[in-house]
Amino acid sequence: MVPAGLYIQALDEMSSNQQKRLSVPRNRVPDGMLLTLYAKATAPTGFLGYASGTAERRWRLPVCIMSLMAAAVISLIQDMDRHGVGLISVSQQPMHETPSAVDAYLCMIESAAQRP
Q1: Which of 50, 90, 87, 91 is nearest to 72 (CA)?
Q2: How far apart are CA 55 and CA 61, in angstroms?
Q3: Is 89 left (phi over 0), alpha (psi -120 to 50) or beta?
Q4: pLDDT at position 61
Q5: Using CA atoms, how far apart are residues 24 and 84, in angstroms rounded to an integer?
Q6: How far apart (Å, rounded) are the C-alpha atoms in residues 54 and 43?
Q7: CA–CA separation, 48 vs 58, rounded Å?
């Protein structure tokens, strides 16, 4: 009874993981949220640039660093959101290799069972 229970549990977990894997590309960050991110990054950078421009001594380095950091964060969010496109991608090779690994395992078990 225990092996059947473990099999059913593993099968259920595999089905659940496959459902999660297939639903990930459909769940995306809404465009309105991305526009809000751009606005929230642009406003403080603009204020920082304005404050730097009105000061007696201009500090361009903090404005550039702030702009680059905001752009990097938003680009990272967009890259992670768009699966299969961009710098961050996850290889699907293990998913393609799994059936052959399971077949090899089953053949090994069959041959071990047939030996006297």
Answers
A1: 87
A2: 14
A3: beta
A4: 82
A5: 11
A6: 17
A7: 11
Residue 116, token pair as written in the block: 């006297």
Q: Is the dihedral of CA 5, 10, 15, 16 positive or negative?
A: positive
Q: Which residues contact 90 (CB under 8 A, 6 or more apart)?
A: 83
Percentage of the residues of the chain whose pLDDT score is greater than 90: 2
Cα 59 to Cα 83: distance, rounded to the nearest angstrom:
38
DSSP character string of 33-84: HHHHHHHHHHHHHHHHHHHHHHSSS--HHHHHHHHHHHHHHHHHHHHHHSTT
Residue range 47-94, pLDDT digits in tens:
888 888 888 887 778 778 888 888 888 888 888 887 767 777 777 788
Banded model confidence at residue 1, pLDDT cuts 50, 70, 90 = low
Q: What is the pLDDT of residue 2?
A: 65
